[in-house]
Amino acid sequence: MVVFTVLVALFFLNGFRSLEWLADDFKTRLIRADTQADQQVVVLLVDESSLSVMEPVVGRWPWPRSVWADVLEYLSMGGAKAAVFDILFTERSHQADGKLNLHDQALVQMSQQTGLAIHAMQLLHDSDNPYANRPLPEIFPKKFAFHPVEGVPSAHNNTFYIPFKQLYQSAHRMGVVEFSPDADGTYRHTALLRDYQKDFYPVLSVAPLIDVLGLTGAKQSGQQLVFTTKQTPLVVPLDREGHYQVNFYHKIHSVSVGSVLASVSLLRKGEVEKLYQDPQLVPPDFFANKVVFIGTSAVGLEDMKDTPIQNRWPGVYLHASIASNLLEKDFLYTPPAWVVVVLMALAVALTTLLVLGTASVLMQVGYPLALALLYTAVNIGLQWKTGWQLDYVPVVAAIFLTWLTMSGYLSATEGREKRRVRKMLAQYVSPAALETVLDQYEDQVKAEVGDDREMSVVFSDIRSFTTLSEGLQPAQVVRLLNIHLEAMTQVTFEYGGTMDKFIGDATMAFWGAPLPDAQHALHATEAALGMQAAEKQVNQQLTEEGLPQIAIGVGVNTGHMILGNIGSSQKLDYTVIGDAVNLGSRLEGLTKQYQLKILLSEFTFEQIQPQIPCLTVDLVRVKGKNKPVKIYSPLCRPDAEDLAQWQQIAELSEQAFSAYHQRQFKLSKSLYTQLPEQFDCFKQLYLQRCDHFLQTPPESGWDGVFVLTTK
Questions:
Q1: Is the pLDDT of residue 435 over 50?
Q2: Which residues pair with 217 in a beta bridge?
């Protein structure tokens, strides 16, 4: 009874949640290994090859929006049902006369002309937003809201990000793209309808199906969301928290955007026959009657998500999976809580009877194990055949905790005969093994507990590694990575850091744990400079071995992070998570945009001054955040012989940046021109900005913040 009470308490307090996620993820990978998404769903991916092909034509990402106008026109020509953009077009570009530039105009016109475009918006709750609860433009409730909706709980969203005015006016529909991970960083569920000021809007995956399936309204009751249609209602199961659980697919039909744009080019030249001869091209009729989702998979664009089916999954696949679920009625079903309580009660009762009902020590061990294996098979089989996702961990925990409790009871209450049986049991299962079972369980119950402390994190990554590796043999790729990662690890250790993990060609390290380090920001920055210096030695070795040279980008951030052993009973990672960690990763990605080797945040900068002079880079607002962050680039080590010279450069950059933010664009341009030649790429960015604002002065509310619309 005590065991059962403890188990029920843990269950309702979500004590099994982290373990249950791991079990569900394992079942997903096992059961969904060969699944294929609905043939009506196609994904257009901006992959590495697309970026490489398009860079000589239209430049670096983000591409001019006329590119997407061409894509829309091609999809319309092919007879697609919908073109769903998992890309936020929140900013607009003006010409000198104040009108939209030609690229934006092209996308607006084609969205209006084709009637296919479903554009992305964000709705979220941001308690720090000083401009919260602004009303959406009047057109949104009238044109884009989904109604009637009953019983769907409000998320109290108070913040929105929408496309620029001309684009949302021309859109056929809007879809919400906000998708939050679970506490372990994995994406598993979402809400299909999102509210803002009492109106509900469909998520990106549902928006195209309003027309395809004829959805006319929705009502949520218990663990069901029922969409009304002109024919049979669509009943969508929800979990116990009222969320929709994504039923993932291993295979989703995807096409490179580069292939589509190459096809567009051939079509304009009149070379139609080549579209059907070259397997790398995509004829327009391929998209006939398809719902086409458009998103990114290139690593540098940072829309890769950790999911149960695969780590680093393109985020657009989440939307495509949900759309396929709804089209095929391919759902996961979660039982009510009372069903799990009944299963735990049966597990406790059966285990107690089996252990107490036999005198054989071997059977006292074997019966609970067999019961656990039987439940495992039933659990997997039921989900495989019917989609019912029964809770696994609480029932198995009930079996093993009851077994341990009964074993302890027998050991404590029995005499010499039972002590002999216990001695016999030790021949089959050691006492240490029994203690390990208990220890692992207790550790997993506490899997979400961590230490919140201020630390510094460093991310490094090889630029354009995917493109680089395509021309190498597998053995050469491994050798190149080993040389690079060995150097990054040595530098990390040299400056007292902890090498957390390797993420393909990227590394993640942190300072401040396990040993406290009062100067973690300084040491992390020195390590970043050390990584930059080590790049020369790495390239020298790569050249000697006949391998291509590499370039790396490094991001550094300081802030409060959650530190702990995170993972499963089989594998725990000593790591850090949190917003400060995410910002460090974003800074590494920004090094490409600013053509600088290292970027660090203002939070790191505050702790390394005046030891390390830094180039003032920008004031940016990263995606999903409202408060801007000032970023810098360290110039030299504290013991550099030419420290005074670097300090002068740092002061010059701060003066130029300050003039820029004070709208003194002529002065700012003059100051940026004085930066050394090694910063030509960086200063060219500001020279172009200054020229632009000299011709077209910014609006009165301009704050000089550069807004990132992608991760």
A1: no
A2: 228
